[in-house]
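Weekly puzzle thread! Below is a chain. First person to post its structure in token form gets bragging rights.
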Amino acid sequence: MDGKGKARGVFGIILVLGALILCGPGASFGGDLEPTAGPGEEGTYTLQDVYDRLHTGAAGTLSTATAPSAGPADSRPTVNEIMGKAPAIDDTDGATEADVAEGKTFWRLTTGQWGPSTGSLAAETVENDTVQQGAGIYEAFDLSTIDEDLASGNIKSGAEIFGVVGDSNVVDTSSGDAVAEDIADGKIAWVDGTEITGTASAGGTCTQALVPRTGQTTCYDASGSTIDCTDTGQDGALQAGLEWHSPRFTDNTNGTVTDNLTGLVWLKNANCDGAKNWTDALAFANSLENGDCDLTDGSSAGEWRLPNIKELHSLIHWGYYSPALSNTGGDGKWTDGDPFTGVGSSYYWSSTSYAIYTVNAWYVALSYGHVGGVNKTNTHGVWPVRDGQ
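Winning reply:
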């Protein structure tokens, strides 16, 4: 090719390149080639920053980059927006394994502990702490406006609910059976949830005798035959005295039985260690304690004693014989285990000496309910008693 031909070839290549540049993508032949605005600067996180945040919790650093002041609209979140949703290190309130219930998974946020983990806190600790927090939250409010019923007067003595202590006057009165005539005139008592004002006359002139009834409800003529009680004036007709409790006795299931009429607590086994002379009977009763004679009442030596003659005689029911003793309810004759065991019909020692002849002591014969005195060297039954609790 001659020199002119080479020149024409080079010029052709230049024209093609020029056309590509001018007519390439985005080229415009009719518009202004000058930019409408210059580039601006803004802070931005890099993808490495986002990765490091998710991987280690690193805070990341905004970098300065040159970018157009405006660009095409895009609905996707920016890197910065994504970074704002990523969790961050929290060494103040970040939970550890010991703060999360055992077996529960969570994401640790503390330095050096970043990443998924499993809690180790015992379940009962979580439950107790939840209860305590609940109480604390409740106490933080004015209780009078939150719950008007949460007041001391509505809570039983000895109990506490959300920091409110029960009133000492709020007690269980369901076991009471007194009536106005049993309470001194003008005195107030609570019986089975009801306030009662006494009407019994002062000075000991009550409308009924302050001794218990005998239990006898039948009347007899001089020959011993049963008769109608009307207008006889007999004990079986009048039934004077304090009415028996129902039930008369309570088996405490700990080797003891409570007489609800007198409040005395008796050994359930009326023949635990056999017959003894009076001196040995006193010593046995005084040394009785928890573990002896099937006792599980927690009693100690010295709490039990041999009953005096009035205490022992208070057990007698004159409606029965052999023995003259009622059952648990007080509405029938005693049978073994109802409520006592080992009850005999023979004599039982009291701790009371015979004043006119002091070598003797008083006894009660359970066969018929009579009392008498006998020499202290004799051997008779021993039935210990203690005061009610």
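Puzzle host: Confirmed. Bonus trivia for everyone else. Residues 2 and 188 are 142 Å apart (CA to CA).
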